[in-house]
């Protein structure tokens, strides 16, 4: 009989191996015979003394067990995850799901904290904190999580599910965040939601963790996330009761008591002011319905106006001219609390407040506020300041930018629907699409320095800062069937996207554009945008096979309509992505074809890309001297024709071409010269603001210095690459740079 191990001693891979072996009805001896792996090694794996098998061993075991399809993929993924060892990187990634800091002025929730503590003492599992908007669910959950954090030694994690958004965070996206926080490499996160949930369950099965799922939308969103083991605790906050959750325990959160609300007010405005006017303080919190958010709004107004008495504010709230209806119970209490602050500001600020609900992105500045309100910039700034003072808007880390709290945005949308004409929505969408299209056109190779909305530098800044707004406007326009505008913006963004592959959701943007072009019957634009979709599939999403299919579709359309320009681009791209999937011969033929067809293109508008791609194909074919000649000729011609484009585009081409030359020199083992080219490429990328290109050049420079034996220079470059790769879209590069750092001696 096989020895039985305690479940907590097994590794994730060991448990999975054991499950598959038992499902097959095999002994360890039989699996050893079938796989060629010793019984002792199998025993070590199943008991968890070895975290996972090496890649070849895992593949042999999968073959022996007859695993196919998703079962095989999941088995190999878990094996690879078990081999990962990078505690520093794991901690860095885990910080993206760190528990937030508790509020310093939480008051009146002592009883609820005791109730939660009693539920936790009964065992782990799932506790849902439910109640109306503004009742303080998140504040209570965060405080409780901070109190219990030492009881969960294997970690605390939090995800904002953004349940109040038009598009809440999907369960799949939330699982992706949690898996990455648990140090699962981006490329190893399963595609299917069910497999992500299964992997999370296996990773957490024997751990004691605390998980906060804040602002949930409904049961369907959170159910796949309930993967923690029996000794762990999952806290959920939600406006809905989540009555459909199996095995959950609930805490219904009610408004504060009189003493709790007054205590919260005292913490905001100062205990001395409350002691000086106790009756006014009690009346004030009563008028606020004892809701923490309403009390906080009133308290913040008093804290920023020390000359006001509490009675003065209570008088204003009592007056029906500033408080249109009495605060009520249930969900109306929150609406009434928001309406209280809304009616206390000027008519101009109220108009701006409700119209700002039409801004589609996460935040906004004075420009968009002026577009939606139609008033002067001076009045816009005054009204924005007034709304910030009333706690109806929040300032952001970006100077002169503002945002709504999620729940206040909902209130603003309700006020807009009740008091405004829907035409404002069309105005702000049209403005964002028009300006983004015109701004993007200034990044074409031969574009002028200044356009209708300003200079290239100004509009580059605008495209960055207003990114969430014009991307959201593009998405909304696609839903509304604004095909022409959606197509035009996607086409215009081609050259702006170069060097900024990690900064925007390019696959979605170009896919929406291609669909719009198809709906318009515009085959030329469809072929062009399909080529952009293929680029984004490969460069942004790592889907090289999907990119090949998309570029072939673009090529078919271009051939059918006789569009030689898009035939050229399709050939250029196919030369790249076919090489990446190992189809070297066909890749070379397409790269050569693109190179030959590119003679018909202007130098700056495609010819440079075709020539550099052909140089890459020559390198891949081992024809190093020819590859160097091609890339150096591109640099030479670029200097000669520099006056035909703007400096930033010339700089982008230099960045890419110098890196390509460095690749050839590295293949020739001329490491110091390669490092020199990479360094120049890196500096040019930094000057041009091409973040992704700077990281890639830094990694390759670091590798070249290491090969040259210059370890300090290598460490400097690779450390820089890690520091620059903080955005989630840079995760793969950060891991690559960290892996290179680990190879350095000492």
TrEMBL record:
InterPro entries in the record: Cro/C1-type_HTH (IPR001387), Lambda_DNA-bd_dom_sf (IPR010982), P-loop_NTPase (IPR027417), TPR-like_helical_dom_sf (IPR011990)
HTH cro/C1-type domain residues: 17-72
Gene Ontology terms for molecular function: ADP binding; DNA binding
PANTHER family, A to Z: HTH-TYPE TRANSCRIPTIONAL REGULATOR RV0890C-RELATED (PTHR47691:SF3), REGULATOR-RELATED (PTHR47691)
Entries under Gene3D superfamilies matching the protein: lambda repressor-like DNA-binding domains (1.10.260.40), P-loop containing nucleotide triphosphate hydrolases (3.40.50.300), Tetratricopeptide repeat domain (1.25.40.10)
Pfam family, one: HTH_31
Protein name per UniProt: Transcriptional regulator, XRE family protein
Species, as recorded: Amycolatopsis azurea DSM 43854
